[in-house]
Design a protein that fits this description.
mainly alpha; single chain
C-alpha cells in the first residue's frame, strides 16, 4: 500500500524526479510502480520517459506491461507503435491497451488484427476490437461489424459493435437509433464492469441531438438501484457530457 503522504509526494513530481523515484523503487512494490508509471503518462512523448516506459512494456508483470502501454497512449512514435504490434498476442489486459493505442493513432495495419479479434474467445477483446475497428471509415470494415452483429451473443461485445457502427454515422436519426440500442444493453447489463463500460460508450456517443436519450438511460439505470461504483461512473459521465456545452 502507498501512504497518503507518499501518494501526495509522487503526484507532484516532474518527469526527472519520477524517473529517479521509479529506479529506486523495490520491484516488489507494484502499487508504487503503477502510480509512477501513470504519472509519467503526461511526459510520455519525451525520449527519456519513452525509453523507460518501453522497458516496462517488457516487464514480467502483466499489470506493469499494461500500465506502461496505457501511459504511452498518446505517443505515436515508431518505437511505441512497433512495441504495441509485438504485444498483440500478450495477456488480455496488455492486448486491450495495445488495441487502444493502435486505434488511437489510426494505424491501418492493425485492421486485420482487429477483424481477427472479433472472433476471440474473450468478450472484452471483441468489445475493444469492435470499438477500434469503428474508428476506421472503410465501408468494408463497417460491413464486417454489421455482419458480426448478427452472430454476436455477448452483451458487452455487442455494445462495442453498436458503438463501432455508430461512430461513422452522421445522420441524427440513425445516431439516435444506435444510441438507443446501446442504452437497452445498458439496462440489460447485470455486471458492474459491463454497466460502467457501456455507460462510458454512451457518454462518448452523447452528441447534442442524442444527449437527452443518454440521460434518460442513465436515469432509468440509477432509479432501479446500482452499486456505488456504477453510481459514481454515471455521475462522472453526466458531468463530462454537460461540460461539452
Amino acid at each position: 500500500m502507498i501512504s497518503q503522504k507518499e501518494f501526495d509526494r509522487i503526484i507532484q513530481m516532474d518527469a526527472r524526479h519520477l524517473l529517479r523515484e521509479i529506479k529506486k523503487t523495490d520491484q516488489a512494490n507494484l502499487n508504487k510502480q503503477i502510480l509512477i508509471i501513470n504519472m509519467l503518462a503526461k511526459f510520455s512523448k519525451g525520449k527519456t520517459v519513452q525509453k523507460n516506459l518501453l522497458k516496462f512494456t517488457d516487464s514480467q508483470e502483466t499489470i506493469l506491461r499494461a500500465t506502461a502501454f496505457d501511459a504511452l497512449l498518446v505517443n505515436g512514435h515508431k518505437e511505441v507503435i512497433n512495441a504495441a504490434f509485438r504485444h498483440l498476442n500478450d495477456e488480455i489486459d496488455v492486448v486491450i491497451r495495445c488495441i487502444e493505442l493502435l486505434g488511437y493513432h489510426e494505424k491501418r495495419k492493425v485492421i486485420p488484427y482487429l477483424i481477427k479479434f472479433l472472433d476471440d474467445d474473450e468478450p472484452v477483446i471483441r468489445f475493444y476490437a469492435a470499438i477500434n475497428l469503428g474508428l476506421f471509415p472503410d465501408e468494408a470494415d463497417q460491413k464486417i461489424l454489421r455482419n458480426r452483429m448478427k452472430t454476436e451473443n455477448d452483451l458487452l461485445a455487442l455494445a462495442g459493435i453498436y458503438f463501432g457502427i455508430n461512430y461513422q454515422i452522421v445522420d441524427e436519426q440513425e445516431n439516435n437509433y444506435w444510441v438507443t440500442k446501446m442504452g437497452k444493453l445498458l439496462m440489460q447489463a447485470k455486471d458492474d464492469e459491463d454497466q460502467c463500460a457501456i455507460a462510458d460508450l454512451l457518454a462518448d456517443s452523447a452528441y447534442p441531438h442524442v444527449r437527452e436519450t443518454v440521460f434518460n438511460f442513465y436515469r432509468q439505470l440509477t432509479s432501479r438501484g446500482v452499486s456505488k461504483e456504477v453510481s459514481i461512473n454515471i455521475i462522472e459521465n453526466t458531468k463530462l457530457i454537460n461540460s461539452r456545452g
